[in-house]
């Protein structure tokens, strides 16, 4: 999310949260293009330098750019994800944004970049998510399948427990047998959206589809626990709302060489 377009309401809402929140925050922005794809990607290369400076100043943990596959005319066409290690870092990023960026560009150039940005794409929506859990592999991440789920408030804890207890170890084992490269569950903040409250992310490497025996893998991980019955229990806790397929275009990370 480009800092200059953050709404006052979002900033105030996040500021009300404790700065001791011990969870990685991911701020995602959904972009609709009003210019050509090529011009937008050139623009993001300019913003990449800004994100790199924020990372160098310990104001961000990472930045990712994804293209939405099979998107319609109304978009979203691209999604950016800004990663923060906690709420304290997020707040510092807002407070020190200008100070950090003016180290690498003049204020007039920054203002011109903002104007060009507004003329190139429209931010359809910004979302703040905190990470519930994840599994990372050493494979190159090329594609994401993002699943949006509606979960009733009374089931928040039960849903998260099911993901951590049964699905996390299963996905971890499946990564050793397939082209799966990532799995993660994120909770929308705040969770009062009436459409969905959680996002489950499956990541894949561009190594071609690699089939594996899901039933056998489940038994290796969970023994006699029924895969079918577990899926039925999970189906009662969450309701699928939509799915997005994304292709990764670029990324930066704090620990990147």
Topology, pairings included?
Elements: H1 8-15, E1 25-33, H2 37-56, E2 62-68, E3 78-84, H3 87-101, H4 107-120, E4 121-136, E5 143-150, H5 156-175, E6 180-189, E7 198-204, H6 214-222, H7 227-237, E8 239-253
Antiparallel strand pairs: 1-3, 1-4, 2-3, 2-8, 4-6, 5-7, 5-8, 6-7
Helix pairs in contact: 2-4, 5-6
Account of the 3D structure:
The protein is of the alpha+beta class. It has 2 domains: 3-129 and 247-253, Alpha-Beta Plaits, CATH 3.30.70; 133-244, Alpha-Beta Plaits, CATH 3.30.70.100. Helix content is 38%, strand content 31%. Strands 1-3-2-8-5-7-6-4 form an 8-stranded antiparallel β-barrel, surrounded by 5 helices. The radius of gyration is 19 Å and the shape is elongated.
* CATH level-1 class of the largest domain: Alpha Beta
Based on secondary structure, the structural category is alpha+beta
| Overall helicity | 25-40%
Q: What is the CATH-assigned architecture of the largest domain?
A: 2-Layer Sandwich
Radius of gyration: 19 Å
Largest sheet: 8 strands, antiparallel, barrel
Count of extended strands: 8
Strand content: 25-35%
Mass-distribution shape: elongated
**What topology, given as strand order, has the largest sheet?**
1-3-2-8-5-7-6-4
Series of H and E elements: HEHEEHHEEHEEHHE
Write down the oligomeric state: single chain
Q: What's the CATH topology name of the largest domain?
A: Alpha-Beta Plaits
Distance between the termini: 24 Å
Number of domains: 2
User: Uncertain spans, ≥5 residues at pLDDT below 50?
Assistant: 1-22
The number of distinct helices, counting runs of at least 4 residues, comes to 7
